[in-house]
Amino acid sequence: TTKLSQKVEVYHLGTILHLLLSRKKYPYISSIEKKDGQSFYKIEGRDNCDALYNEADVSKKIQKLIAHGERPSLPLEILQIANDPAIEAIVRARDAAMTYDVNKRPRARKVANILIEATSKLLSNE
After folding, report:
1. According to the model, what pLDDT value does residue 104 have?
2. What is the pLDDT of residue 110?
3. Which residues contact 89 (CB under 8 A, 6 or more apart)?
4. 20 to 30 Å CA-CA from 39: which of 27, 62, 94, 123?
5. d(CA 105, CA 101)
6. Which residues does 86 contact at the CB level (< 8 Å), separation at least 6?
7. Is the model's pLDDT at 112 over the cut of 90?
8. Distance between CA 108 and CA 101 in Å, rounded?
9. pLDDT reading at 29 higher than 80
10. Taking Cα atoms as reference points, which of 20, 7, 3 lies closest to residue 72?
């Protein structure tokens, strides 16, 4: 595998960690509305307020968010327990993996080490 494809896989790992934390089916999407048999999407974030996007436009909009280094937001209930060592480790691993700049994005091993170190600490405290 090339370095670039490895880094893409790391970003996908961050997306998976985000989906586990948020329990949402789609990152960046706050809601989906059906109108006349078509799906329209609301994108999370203050700049997107009540705008609805069709499938083609939502993809472009999300690509712009990613290109600007924006990560999908976490639900309030997760943020309220973010000081929990397990949640904190998953958020740190997600944030590292979802670094937009490929040259700054860590390798999978570094992301895994964040989770391994947190697990070791949690197990040693039991």
Report:
1. 92
2. 95
3. 114, 115, 117, 118, 119
4. 94
5. 6
6. 118, 122
7. yes
8. 15
9. yes
10. 20
Across the chain, mean pLDDT equals 87
Query: For tokens 């790391």, what's the residue?
Result: 10
Query: What pTM was estimated for this model as a whole?
Result: 0.81
Specify the residue for token string 């000081």: 83
Q: Which residues contact 118 (CB under 8 A, 6 or more apart)?
A: 85, 86, 88, 89
Give me the helices (H) in the chain, please.
Answer: 3-22, 55-67, 76-80, 85-97, 108-124
Tokens, residue 74: 């976490």
Q: What is the mean pLDDT of residues 76-103?
A: 90
Q: Are strands 38-43 and 29-35 parallel, antiparallel or unpaired?
A: antiparallel
